[in-house]
Automatic annotation (TrEMBL):
Signal peptide: 1-28
Keyword annotations of the record: Signal
Region named Disordered: 388-421
InterPro entries, per the entry: Pectin_lyas_fold, Pectin_lyase_fold/virulence
Segments forming a coiled coil: none
Protein name, UniProt field: Right-handed parallel beta-helix repeat-containing protein
UniProt source species: Muricoccus nepalensis
Amino acid sequence: MPLRDRPAPRLLALLLLAAGLPPLPARAAERPWPLPELCRVELPAGTGTRYYLDRGAPRASDRNAGTSPEAPLASLAAVQRLRLRPGDSVALRAGTHYAGELRLTASGTPSNPIRLTAYGEGERPSIRATAPFVISAAGASDVIIEAIGLRGAPDTAIVLDDATRRIVVHDVLITGSGRGVDVRGESHLLVGNSIRDLHMVTNTPGGDDDSGAQAFVIGGRGHRFHCNHVRNARAMSYDYGTDGVGFEFWRSAADIVVSGNWVEDSAGFFEVGGLPGDKVRNLLVQGNVALNASPFHWLHNKRGTGNFGLEITGLQVLNNTIVDTQHRALLFGFGDRPAPGSYRFACNIVVAPFARQVFNQPTEEASHNLLPPGAGVAGRGNLAGDPRLVSPALQDFRPQPGGPAPWAGAFAAERDPGCAP
């Protein structure tokens, strides 16, 4: 799907200097994370059978029961044959690597989930794709996928289908895939994952149909996305020049929270689109950081025209910190003027010294934001100017004491009732 008006990337160091900022170091220091309390999760341990997978163990064999680390299973094929029950877990030995795919159909319970995890010391175990998907959950519920690496999916690393319920994806590293996680179903939690270096899935000249380089593709209802890090969700597209995005809402979705995430060096933070008759309702995008990921959003809210128009209601964009030192084009895109009450943009900090346009449509519900000088956005309590962040060059986007908008951004030092969802 397209995100319009994307210029070619520029050299970040030169642009920082031009903006009066020192260049970024080769590796940023321990940068503050927005809403760190959302990163801490307590997940049920499960009380069932634990199966071990370690292809490098001297006694590894698919003929083993696999219930002992001294006599583990040797392949993903053996894991696929297991008849998992509530509370069971499958643990991959740290430092081991596999090729193949897993299809998860068994279900746990809320207090006794099924778990796919890692054990031992060393680098995280990984699975390289040999099919379009690495892990697909079909009709499963109460499953935890954690602490593993997935790479090289031609299509999508993890797929949660329409019939899934209460899946947790936690601390998973996804690289070199077309899409990170396709999230359907109901009430999933995706927290603390890292997704980077994505590529196109469909990329053909003409047709307005290119798609790919999306970290999360989202439908269904009741999902929460917290503390995820997305980097380089962008790729060359024949149709759009550059495509990709951190969070792609595709088709109908409702009651979803995207909070405390960080998207950088990508072709957008989030996009909302679908087909005629689709609806996206009650979407909260709050307390996130976008660094050189513009446009921050593109909303296909012009129904009945184009490939992607749909109805959007109850979308709130609150307390985000949006920093872009590269792009000269649009920051916040709409297909049409937002209907009254459908869109709220409040208490955000936007730093974009080269942007030529902030919004491409009038926005009645923009208030208490700190925007670039000359943004020309009307609204109650909006300010324009320097937010006085601690150190943009070191990616420390906290406001300095005494700054002009302590209530705004992902690191707000004060809470203002006007910023509440």
